[in-house]
């Protein structure tokens, strides 16, 4: 849920990166953190296990400039992808304004993608949201790896709503900003509706 | 989308409550945070604290504790207390919607903070009630200046 502060003329929104374990959600945030100007970003926080698997969430605050005299701030979060962290995933979705659904293009991760997508729908509904109304984009990550599912096939199963979708190699940065930009746009358009 | 919208006067009232709490509780810093992790207001000597991170982690903490509460059949744990060697943190949900964080040291005490937070809770509740009333009465398009945002404005954010 966006927070609009007329006193400090700020719009604050929350974007969540969702997807199965090891699909590259944290890598997306790390790339954004690495590439964005220092004055536009805050500190990145990763609540991770000793083996660098996300335990609760990663958090990256971004400032993206002004719109009609309002500073726009976006708080980017990732959920923990591993199946057994479902309780934590639900919590992170609270107050979400937009979602980047990151899927792993590798053939043997297709079941994990589908399971995670279904899980996202269920968890959103539990929080009183609906995927039909919440702005989201789909990112097909790891396109640089061998043994990947063709995009058309991924699209058929993971983008039934025909939302904006992007091929990506988050480790190298390809597709990362495209996905973020598209989500930011959708969020602001939704906000404009009031 | 059910956004939280705050105007100057409301923020001034909220800031006045936390300024008063800061002095009444003899605290080092007081923060008011939205449950979604956005900082609303702060007071005290807080310049060396990363307030954005503090807001996000506090909201995560409250959310996780809320999840624990539900597991044992409680609606929520409305107060959290973290004790450090020098500084302590008192975190509470006020007016069911916002989170109040009080940082204090040996110059204050948990009992005093709890007492003063209780008073601030009542004051904050009154402000939140009036915000909700204003939201219920006003026409959404009147309040939402964002309606004037053009596609070009959005595109320009990225250039």
Description of the structure:
The complex is a heterodimer of chains A (194) and B (159). By secondary structure, chain A is α/β, with parallel strands linked by helices. Chain A has a single domain (3-193), classed as 3-Layer(aba) Sandwich (Rossmann fold). In chain A, 32% of the residues lie in helices and 28% in strands. Chain A has 5 helices and 8 strands. Chain A has helices at residues 25-35, 86-93, 110-126, 151-158, 176-193, and strands spanning 3-5, 10-18, 45-48, 54-67, 70-78, 98-104, 136-141, 165-167. Chain A is globular, with a radius of gyration of 16 Å. Chain A starts with a strand and ends with a helix. The model of chain A has no long low-confidence stretch (mean pLDDT 95). Chain B has 159 residues and is α+β, with helices and mostly antiparallel strands. Chain B has a single domain (8-156), classed as Dynein light chain 2a, cytoplasmic (Beta-Lactamase), CATH 3.30.450. Chain B is built from 5 helices and 6 strands; from the N terminus they run βαββαβββααα. The two termini of chain B are 27 Å apart. The chains are: A alpha/beta (194), B alpha+beta (159). The A-B interface holds A 1-8, 11-12, 14, 42-43, 45, 47, 56-57, 59, 61, 64-65, 67-68, 70, 72, 75, 87-88, 90-92, 94-95, 97, 181, 184-185, 188-194 and B 1-8, 10-12, 34-38, 40, 50, 52-53, 56-57, 60, 63-64, 66-67, 140-141, 144-149, 153-158.
């Amino acid at each position: 849920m966006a927070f609009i502060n007329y006193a400090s003329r700020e719009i604050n929104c929350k974007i969540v990166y969702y997807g199965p374990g090891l699909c590259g959600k944290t890598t997306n945030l790390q790339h954004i953190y690495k590439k964005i100007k220092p004055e536009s970003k805050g500190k990145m926080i990763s609540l991770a296990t000793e083996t660098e698997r996300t335990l609760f969430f990663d958090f990256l605050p971004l400032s993206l400039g002004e719109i009609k005299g309002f500073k726009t701030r976006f708080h980017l979060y990732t959920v923990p992808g591993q199946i057994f962290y479902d309780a934590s995933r639900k919590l992170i979705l609270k107050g979400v304004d937009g979602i980047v659904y990151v899927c792993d293009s590798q053939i043997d991760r297709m079941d994990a993608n589908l399971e995670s997508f279904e899980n996202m729908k269920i968890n959103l509904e539990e929080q009183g949201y609906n995927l039909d109304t919440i702005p989201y984009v789909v990112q097909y990550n790891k396109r640089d790896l061998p043994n990947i599912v063709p995009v058309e096939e991924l699209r058929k199963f993971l983008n039934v709503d025909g939302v904006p979708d992007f091929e990506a190699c988050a480790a190298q940065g390809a597709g990362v900003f495209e996905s973020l930009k598209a989500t930011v746009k959708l969020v602001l358009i939704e906000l404009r509706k009031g | 989308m059910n956004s939280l919208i705050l105007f100057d006067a409301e923020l001034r009232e909220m800031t006045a409550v936390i300024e008063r709490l800061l002095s009444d509780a003899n605290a080092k810093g007081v923060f008011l945070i939205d449950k979604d992790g956005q900082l609303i207001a702060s007071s005290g000597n807080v310049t060396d604290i990363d307030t954005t991170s503090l807001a996000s982690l506090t909201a995560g903490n409250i959310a996780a504790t809320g999840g624990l509460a539900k597991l044992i059949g409680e609606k929520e744990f409305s107060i959290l207390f973290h004790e450090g060697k020098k500084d302590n943190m008192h975190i509470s949900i006020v007016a069911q919607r916002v989170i109040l964080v009080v940082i204090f040291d040996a110059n204050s005490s948990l009992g005093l903070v709890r007492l003063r937070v209780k008073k601030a809770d009542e004051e904050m509740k009154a402000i939140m009630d009036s915000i909700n009333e204003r939201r219920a009465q006003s026409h959404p398009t009147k309040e939402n200046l964002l309606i004037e945002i053009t596609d070009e404005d959005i595109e320009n954010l990225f250039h």
